[in-house]
Design goal:
Layout lengths: L1 E8 L3 H12 L4 E4 L28 H15 L2 E3 L4 E5 L3 E6 L2 E12 L3 E3 L12 E3 H9 L8 E5 L3 H13 L2 E7 L8 H9 L4 E3 L1 E7 L6 E6 L12 E4 L2 E4 L3 E3 L2 H6 L3 E4 L4 E4 L12 E3 L9 H18 L5 H18 L2 H22 L2
Protein name: FAD-dependent oxidoreductase
Organism: Psychrilyobacter piezotolerans
Keywords: Oxidoreductase
Length: 366
């Protein structure tokens, strides 16, 4: 069996950042990812990031991903791709498949950075070809250079729905509208303004009543909602579309954490059930850390910072950093995380993270 000091499950923004921090401390680390390419969501994000210079504001997501990959190579991080992990067993033994065979790797510490998955929305006709997640559409246009459809309806006005709508327009699609069940757009105004200027109508307090088509989507019926989110008869509109993209939030991919016995707590603003963890990103299981969207759905910059935090903490626990040095490094990361969680959109996430950590501490003090 292969052995290493730290096994990172997930090669997205958080996982790569964690691997880099461990390698920087002199630790031996292996990153496992089920995809054929590492980097996760970064490589389908062609828009420029917001924030500060520290968070590479003005840099496009795929460029940040490229920098992370270059750093992993320079530091000698062992990255194994096309290797889905399907279990963690006694002694922190991680089992994964590669080239049709089962493999095992034992780590002294494990960092779970498994990301998130798109939520679905059920309505009559939602199983027709042409109905897909917005993230899938984003992968098709930005990674595979394939336009998913010519006439698209977007459902959901969070940042994913707004950004993917704009990118579909850039790719040549006609975005015929964006539907949002809430009375207001939930994503950044700057993104909403872009698609509005491009002529995309935003239907707030609306939902999809049904998708129609013979074997594939050809039309969609939307209708207005009242203050109790009930459909208002007589307000239906039928739009010609061949694609319906669903952008109604993400849920943490936490199956592995559940199966090994991590304690969870329910925080709706983080996507639902998330593992409890302390300020070092360590779960209720000693030596098992979480970072990125599995610990609460946020944006890629926060995921990378949480990955760095988990990597530094794991290195400290392995004796690769002194307590003083680790405290200094972790303090820098927490300062940057708190900056990301400032402001109108960040404050709720900051409070949610405090709640998540306090629930860990409540259990630890019992």
């Amino acid at each position: 069996m292969k052995e290493t000091q730290v096994v990172v499950v997930g090669g997205g923004p958080a996982g790569l950042a964690a691997g880099i921090e461990i390698a920087k401390s002199g630790g031996k680390v292996t990153v496992l990812d089920e995809n054929k390419k590492p980097g996760g969501q970064l490589f389908k994000q062609i828009h420029k990031f917001f924030g500060s210079r520290e968070h590479l504001a003005g840099t496009r997501g795929y460029e940040i991903g490229t920098k992370l990959l270059e750093e992993t190579k320079e530091l000698g991080v062992d990255v194994i791709l096309d290797a889905p992990v399907y279990g963690i067993f006694e002694g922190k033994t991680v089992v994964y498949s590669k080239d049709g065979k089962q493999h095992q790797i034992k780590g002294d510490k494990i960092i779970l950075a498994t990301g998130a998955t798109e939520n679905t929305l059920a309505f009559p006709g939602s199983d027709l070809p042409g109905v897909m997640g917005a993230g899938a559409a984003q992968t098709m246009i930005n990674v595979n250079r394939v336009l998913p459809g010519k006439k698209v309806l977007m459902v959901g006005s969070g940042n994913v729905g707004l950004i993917v709508s704009y990118q579909l327009m850039q790719a040549g699609a006609d975005v015929v509208g964006l539907v949002e069940a809430a009375p207001n757009v939930s994503g950044y105004g700057v993104h909403a303004s872009k698609i509005s200027r491009g002529g995309v109508p935003i239907y707030t307090s609306h939902t999809v009543k049904r998708a129609m088509g013979d074997g594939e989507v050809s039309k969609v019926e939307i209708c207005e909602l009242d203050e109790r989110f009930q459909m208002i008869e007589g307000t239906e509109k039928i739009l010609d579309v061949d694609t319906i993209c669903i952008a109604v939030g993400l849920s943490p991919m936490s199956e592995i954490a559940w199966t090994i016995g991590c304690d969870f707590t329910f925080i709706p603003s983080f996507g639902g059930h998330v593992p409890k963890h302390n300020e070092n990103m360590e779960s209720t299981l000693p030596g098992i850390y979480v970072s990125g969207d599995i610990s609460g759905v946020e944006e890629a910059s926060s995921a990378m910072e949480e990955g760095r935090l988990a990597g530094i903490a794991a290195s400290e626990a392995l004796g690769l950093y002194s307590e003083e040095k680790a405290r200094e490094l972790k303090g820098q990361v927490w300062k940057r995380l708190n900056t990301l969680r400032d402001g109108e959109f960040g404050e709720k996430r900051k409070l949610s993270k405090k709640t998540q950590i306090s629930r860990y501490m409540e259990d630890a003090n019992e």
